[in-house]
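Researcher: Go.
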Amino acid sequence: MDDEHRHLLSLEERRILCACEPCWAMRAGDPGLRPSGSRSLLLDGFSLSDELWASFQIPIGLAFFFRSAASGGIVALYPSPAGATESELYLETWNDLVAANPVLETLEHEVEALIVDRISDEHGYAIVPIDRCYELVGRIKASWTGISGGSSVEDAIGAFFARLRAGGLAA
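Model: Structure:
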């Protein structure tokens, strides 16, 4: 990702807009626009049992979750050959996850997401800026092969979490 620009989130359209520094500063206060989140936090000791994960009914082991004013709740998205695919979420299941992990109460609406990696051998959980989640989905989409995505999916996820551990995902 080009680190020469920032992102603004169009809340009604749920779109990410690229902005140079002066435009970002001028438009960050516009109604309907919000700067992307800036916090990257690895969640060591995160609690997510196989049973709770299965109750989300997400067909792959990678997803990100965020609070959306437009939908009035939590939105879950996962990568696919077509890009980010939205999954209907059972609010009760989300509430169970928050009860087990109170740090999720601090998710900033619209601009931060919980990303869950249950594809890698070592599962990973983090709170990251939402634009970084879409960046990962874009990288996966661009390199997807076959039905399951191929090894490039695992490579993209591994690189994402390696950058996160190295402190390279902050906005």
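Model: The mean pLDDT is 83.
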